[in-house]
Every structure is written in structure tokens, then in C-alpha cells.
Amino acid sequence: MTDTYSGSETAALSPSGARPKKRLHDRWLTFGTFAVLLGSWAAATGTGPWEPIISPLFLPSPALVVQTFLQLWENGFQGKSLGDHIGISLYRFSTAFFFCIVLGVPLGLLMGMNKRVRAIVEPPIQAIRPIPKIALLPLFLIWFGIGNLSKIIVISAPVFPIIAISAMQAVRSVSEKKIQAAQSLGAGRWTVFSRIVLPASLPGIFTGIRVSISIAVTMLVAAELTATSEGIAWMALTAAEFLATNIVIVAVLIMALIGFGLDRLFWFLETRIVHWSGKD
Amino acid sequence: MQIEPYECGTRCAPSEAKLAIEGVSKIYGAGAEAVVALTPMDLMVRDGDFLCVVGPSGCGKTTLLNLVAGFDTPTGGSIRLDGQEISGPGAERGVVFQQGALFNWMNVLENVAFGPRATGHSVAVAHERALRTLQMVGLEDFVQKYPYQLSGGMQQRVGIARALTNDPEVLLMDEPFAALDQQTREGLLGEIRDLWKRTGKTILWITHSIEEALFLATHIVVMSPRPGRVRAAFRSEFGTSEDPMVAVSPEFVAAKRQIIELLSAEAPKEVLAQ
User: Which domain holds residue A233?
Assistant: First the structure.
């Protein structure tokens, strides 16, 4: 009971006075970290009257990275616009993610609710979990061809079990008391599921989804390793063959931004939808 | 004013009882690992009784409540409410838990309206009923709040309102105020007495506090552990007393002493057993 207030029952919850100030202070510290990183990067790569310590071949200056980004935006890369590369990667990524959520969450819920379903489905999922999914890429290429399907499947391979298992565990950790309370208020099985088990599991499901975002971005790189000539990760890999470090960095930053943006998006949805998360 | 012993199993004929508990026992596990949680007990509760079951942990009082609520099935015997055998949880038996049983994803109004909604009433009817019981427990200004925004005492009021809104035949309360601070608890105990007088509900109240039992109950069942069993039962007049200072009266203290002595008579045996 951390979020309740003691003493007078009707007193309003007042945040301690020092809190907003401290938060602002912390923000400045975080900002400082990035400023120092960017500053050292700029200094080491010869931004100024001195010679670069690190050759642009290995690490281009921030200015060159920005310039490269603008050039890529203008002229595209290897016959396709930057938007196309980002678009195809986002397509692969979000299709995989969409199907993992749409199929994985209900399956996990079923596994959590029903012992038999769990006995049938959980062992195979647990068995494939430890296999490094990148190792399956050649197999997927043979089975599903060199098109987008094999890429979507290799991204889904690690994401699906995480989402399904976390949904299952979320269901299994729903407080027995809450279920009993609902039953003794007259709720039948369907009402208990839809109004108790499902909402009580949502925080756990969201956690599973957010954990798998960074894994899915990693798998995007693996998926675009071979058998394609488009995509943002493919752009980075191809540019690396020509030692075009500036392009590699632009591509990496774009992927980082995609991962970060998605994480923020789901974090935003989480705070909006499951406002009660962690407040039991 | 005082307490006097009575036979809780033969207080009335089972057919006259609101809640008839006959030969009910509960054993967990089997064989060498079997644990007797409750040895066969009889208990007749009449309509409008405020019955407190008091005893230390392990005496089987919560087991008894879980059996009456239908969360668990007895190993032997039968439990009947208005002559109907209990076979699972049901809306005619409202349960109030110690804590953590509110639905955090629903606001106070939705929590309290859950019962009528689950039993097939329209949203309008459910909300109207919920507002009425919320008024009874003094929470009409907090309907839009979420449970985690309320203090522990207010959360328990929501739990009580939620159970009352279904207008159950019997209220089962599992140490509802055990996690609250002393002042909040004392205030709420007074409110519960008023609520009982106004509604005339049959209440089965589980507690480990002898004082709480004396302050509330018309009937007190004292249980003791290893194995869980009924030790004694008393009729009490303190629960219906109009005296606001009844809990500090000499008779009250004497009654408390009587029950403490009854329970501590067990203690030497316990020490020997360990």
C-alpha cells in the first residue's frame, strides 16, 4: 500500500515539495551526459582548427553524419529513397510485431487459463526459446523463400514466445482473491475472464511487448543480412562493405530512433491504458 | 451485562437456521501428510445474527469462511444457506476480504456496481444501487476515484459497499480491518455496528481480536488450533449495547479476560508439544 496516504482519511495526497526541483536537476544531469558525449565525439573527429584524432574512415564527425543524412534524404541509397528503405524495414518489423501480438497474446491468455492448453503448447515454446533464432535464418530462407515472409518470420521467432509466455505468466499471477471476489459477486466464467483476468494481466502483457521491441530491432538486422537489397539494416551492412562509415552511422541512428520511438509509444499506451500498473 | 455460554451447534433446528453448518470438517492433503484444518463442527446461525468467529491463526476460522463462501469444499458434512446446499461461490453470500481484493482497473463506482452488473442488471440499475450503498458508507464523493487513490480505511469501505450492493443473504467478513491502523479500525467498527442495526444482515465475521468480537457480535464462537476446532461459544450483549463506552466497561474487560483464559488454557499443552 505505497500509494495511499495515512493519517487523516480525507487529506489530499500532496507530493513532497522538493520533488519537481530534483527532477529538473536530474534532467540537466542527463542532458549534460549527452552534451559531453557529443562534444567528445565532435572534438575527436576534428571539429575545429585541430586535426582529427580518429580518421573519418572509422568515425566521421557529427557534422558529416548530418550532411550524409541530408544527402541520403535527397538522393536515396542504391537506387531507392531513404524513405523506401525505412518503409520496407518498418513493414517487416511491424507485420511481424502485429502478428506476434494478435496471435501470441490470446495464446498466452489461453495457456494461462487452461491447464490442458498449457500442457500442449508450453513445452514446444519453451523448447525453441533457447535456440538462437539467427541460426534458423538459413532454414527460414529455404522454407519461406527469399521474400519478405522469411524476414517477417525470423523477426517473429524470438518475439512470439516472449509475448505468449509473458501473457501466460500475467494470467497465472492474477490474485486469487480478486477472482474469488468476482465469483462471490455473482460473476460467471466469462465475466471473470473479461473483467478480472484480462485487465489484471494487461500490465504483464505490456511488459512482454516492451521487452521484445529491442529484440525485434536486433532481429531486423539479422533478417536483412542476406537475400535482400532494401531496408535500413541492409543499407548499414552494404555501406560497411564500402567502408562508408558515415552511412553506417546514419542507418544505426535511424534504427535506434525506431526502437526508441516504439518503446515510447508503448510506454505511452501503457500509462494510458494500464494506469493501475504496480499500484496494488 | 455479560456473556453467557451456549451450544452453537444446537441453538436451533437446522431447518430454522439461516446458515446451517453440520459436521463440517476440512482435511488438506492425504495420507501421512494430511493436515486437519477443521475437525467436524456444528454451527447454527439464525437470521440477523452477528456471529464472530475468534481464535489465533491456524484455528480454522478462515477455512470455515472459505467453505461457507464456496471457495473450498468441505471434506465432510454439509453447509446450507436457507436450506440450500452450498456448492460454490454465489451472489447470495457477499464476501469482504482483508485487503487487495478491489479491482484497481475500475473506479469506485464500477467496483461497487460490479455485483448487480454480474447478476444481470442494467448499468442504470447497477449504478443507482451502487450509489445508494456508497452513500451508506460515506463514499458518495469518491465514486470517480480509483481504489489505489484511497486510504486503507476507505478501500475497506468500498469492499463493504461492494458486498452490500448485491443485497446478499449473509455477509462473510474475513478480518476486514486487520491491516488498518488502530484509529481507523475503531472508527469503522462503530460504523459496522450501525450498518448491521440498519440492515439487519446476518453477518459471519472472522477475527483474531477478542475485543473486536465482543464489541460487534451477538454470538461469539471461540476456536483453537492444532487441530482447528470449536472451543466454546457465547451469547454476548455488548454488540447491541447503546453505551458508547461499552468497550472500556468492567464487564467488557471481564468478558475479554474470560475468553483469554479459555484460549491460554491451551498454551501449556502447546509448549509441551513443541
Answer: 60-273
